[in-house]
Amino acid sequence: MNMKRYGFLFALPLALLVGCGEADELKTTATDTEEVVVAEEAKESAAQEEVETKEETEVQDSELGTNTIYMKNKALDIQETIASLTFTIDKVQTSRLQVAEAYRDSFDGQEEVTVVAVNAIVENTVDDTVSFHPNQATLVTNTGEQVTADMWFSDDVGGEFLGKVKKEGNVLFFVKALPEELTELKLVVDGPFDADYAQLAEDRYEYTIDVTK
Questions:
Q1: Which terminus in the chain has less CB density within 10 A, N or C?
Q2: pLDDT surpassing 50 at residue 111
């Protein structure tokens, strides 16, 4: 099957993790009456509920299919120095993708899959060449699945870092479990090596990510 890297490939991770504007701040004015304060609080509560409802039902359509977001966390605080590299995971999102018929062969004939997307930032701080491959990471779910990142759909955030290079993008995993069944993920990444294929740090790094809603 001749696969083309359409704009959605991946507007999916980019739109899902970066998109969705924040709600406008509610402007309140101090008053002397309790009734007005209560009314403002009720208005704020209703606005917050509306935002949460919109996030719960956020859906994106593309050539690949219809993707319904389940949870997202844009404030992960996972950062580690690995040899000369600074490795950061700052966002995670889970969603359910209804695969368009034309693309089902790429998903072993499945009509629906769960998408786990993590945003990775890798920066090499020295002039030497370093190879590191978070886009080939392994994901282990609390439901007992073990899958490798899909390199075709993931962004190019791995490979050779020819000196002081910084790469950022989304690493995508496709799992069978429903998003609501996922509570904890373990991300496993092999350590970096130099131009002579010598290991520069630990063989393997593991990160635990909470994906409860």
A1: N
A2: yes
